[in-house]
Amino acid sequence: MNKLRERQDQYIFAEKIVNLGGRATLLEALLGINKRAASMLFKAIALQSSRGGLLPYDPNWIVKTPINCLHSSYFYSIFHNIEMGSPKEADKKILFVGAYAIYKTIFDSRIFPIERAWHVYLQITCGNYKFTQCTRCQCQYLTVKSYPVLYQNCPVCDVDIDSHKRRRWTQRRRMISPIKPSDAGTLLKRV
Ligand SMILES: [Zn+2]
To answer: Which Pfam family, any one, appears in the UniProt record (predicted)?
Structure first.
């Protein structure tokens, strides 16, 4: 590939990332370019300087609330399906951006911005997270692999909704009265 074509492809890819909400720091990570080049590229695309700050780094974020767990799991399901349908040699970073673009057309990206999705993706690729299937509602969700089973709660079944309609992890697992799959579908629609 000649240099000009390479630069054009890089610009188009960067444009997609910026349009999905990525800052210069994400361009740096996804394009493998230095900080200065990423800032200049961001400015050329967005016509303004990028906000600063580090990328998300808290590996426990996905289990802090059921909503975090649900959105991480929704995103990873989309990525996983795309990956399964793509050739082995496909560029995973391009698949990642494609998966996030689909996620954003369906869900509220303020809860789960692209930079959070990138962090979740990195945690999965380095083996810190795993996909677990709930034996009660059959949904698949992400958990932190090193956590005891007791803390790998299902974001559909192990949840209470408080008086402010916020979804909280329930303190007691509902082993006596398992939630039915039909109820699980209703709960997911409320998110
Ligand atoms: Zn469940």
So the answer is: FlhC
